[in-house]
Each structure stands twice: as C-alpha cells, then as structure tokens.
Amino acid sequence: MRTLTPEDRREALKAFVDAPDGDLDVVDRSTLERAANCPWQAKAIADGRCSAVGLMAEAGEEAHKAFGEVLRSWIDSNGAMDRSDLRQDCEFAVRNARPDLQPEAIRAIQNAIWSWSELIYKIHPGNILAFDGGEDIDLSGQLAVDFPDLKTRFTSELDLLYQGDCPDVLEEVDYKTGWADWSTETIRDSFQFQSHAVLALEKYPDRKALRVSVFETRSRKLTYGVHFPRERIFDWKVRIRSAIEAWRVSQQDNPPCWPTTEKCGMCPAACMCPIADEQFKELADPSAFVGKIIAVKAKLDAMETIATAWVDTFGRDIQAPDGTWYGRSKPKEKKSPTSLYKIKGKPNGSNGN
What we know:
Elements: H1 6-17, E1 25-28, H2 29-37, H3 39-46, H4 55-76, H5 83-95, H6 102-109, H7 113-121, E2 128-131, E3 142-147, E4 152-157, E5 160-163, E6 169-176, H8 184-189, H9 191-203, E7 209-216, E8 221-222, E9 226-229, H10 233-250, H11 261-264, H12 278-282, H13 286-314, E10 318-319, E11 325-326
Parallel strand pairs: 1-4, 6-7
Antiparallel strand pairs: 2-5, 3-4, 5-6, 7-8, 7-9, 10-11
C-alpha cells in the first residue's frame, strides 16, 4: 500500500476544493480561525513573517498520518485485523515518521496506541465515512462548503467521521496530540467543531446531528461526545461568515489588531505586533522568556539578601517612597483566627479566667 507524500496530499486537496467556475477563494479552517482571533496576526503569518507551526504541531501531523495509514489498512482488511494487528501497525507507522520529528511523534501517541486500537476495532470499516488520509480511497476527511455571496469555499479536514449506532447522528473523533484538556464546554464553543458540524451536516443532509469526541493521546482520554444539532447550524454558519469577513480584512495592507491578554500570550506574531505589551513580545521566544524569569528571580533573591542585611545591621526597617515597608516589623493581624488550642499548666475545665 503506497503512503501518500505531502505533495500527493496537496494535489488531492487542490483537486477536491477547486471550484468548477474558478471564482471562489478557498480558505481552510485554521486560516479563518487565526483571522477571527486577530486579523493582524493572520496577515503576519500569511506573509511569512512568522510561523504558526512548532515542533509539537509538526510531530502531531506525523502522528495523525500514522493513524490514517492504519485506518486505511483496517478498511482494506474489511475488519479482519485484530486489536494487536492495529496496535503493531500503528507502532510501525509512527516509527516511520520524519526522522527529525519521530521522537516527539512517538511520545505524542505511544501511551494511547492500545486505547486507539480498541476504539477503531469497535467501528466497522463499512461505517467509516471520512478520515484524514483517506484521499486515495474516496474517503477524504477534507470537506467543504460554499458561501457564494462571499466568493469563498470554506474547507476543513476531519480526523475521523463515521456512522454510529444511531442512524440520525454522525460521529466525529478528533485527535489532539498536545497537552490541552478538552472539556465539554471548550468542545461545544470551539470554532473548529462548530464548523465541522456545518461541513458534516451539509454533506449528509438527512442526519440530524453531529456528535464530537476528542481523543487526547497523551492522557489516553476520550471525552464524552458533545452533541451539535442541526437546529443550530444557522448560528455556526453566521460565525463562519464573520470569520470569512475577518479574513478578508486580514488581507489589507494594515489590518487591525485585536489584543487580549489570553490571545497575545500565545500569539506567534507578538514579537512584531505594533500594539502588544512588551512582555508578550518577549514571550515569542518562550525558552528565553523563562530564562529571563530565572535571572530576574535570582536578582530579586540577591536584592532581598542585601536589604535584610541592612535591616539587621541598623536595627530598623526600610520604607519605600509609596509607604511600603521592608523588614521584620510587619504588624500582626488585629484578631487571631479562632481555633482549638490548649494552654500548658491550666487545669482541666478551666476557661482561663
């Protein structure tokens, strides 16, 4: 069985998403989500001024590819493989990851391979509708939906989509190879999964809902399924449309920044952002930032040692210009907290009077 190269996958995607009349711009979910978070960040990444992909993300792609290869084998075998076969094939596939990424790819899924094999073993191959890596057997996980009035085709790739026991409900499993903990709330509110619900329910108009579970490979945790009912599809489409509009804005020469503490702390473009706080710009290099924390803390410890020596030498505390004191004379609390206690020498039954 031939393994698809990155070039094969790009060509398959290009053929899949090309609009017949050529008048729709194709944009993927991650690009839209970046623009929805901050148009300036999206512009910086699109222009190649910074990278949105780190080692863990690249290794995660290799892990996803390993899962996809074994899923193809499972389908080709028509379910003839047992759990051990699935596990062994997955171990072999991830060991063949790109050499610079192989150690991290193995770490990302090594503890979850058995749990993943158990999960797949329970899904009949004939019920698998789409998966990441299924391009060459007409089961591509890359789905698309058009917004003609916005001249845009929106696309995203699902890791695994299958038909479960309920005929009206589609089942999605998404692999997460990082350390994030996905709760029911974060899944429900996620742009990724709301947009996946639109894509899946548009492709299968007779289904009433998509149920999404996240498989956290490092903790071997499969979350509870979160229900995305068709009745909410209008809300999710509006969100995608707003993201498309933000993406159009991000293509301007000087798009706006939408800073918040939570977003800026994780932004790969923070080091060059015109309005981000200085500490977030420094956080663009996390290792160097932590090194600075260590150095600053060491300096603080040294400063406190010197100040303590001064207090002990001169016998008095030091007052700062704002009225803050440093020393040994910090006032005690006016009232001691209530608690059970004994006083030595007091007879039993004495109340201390």
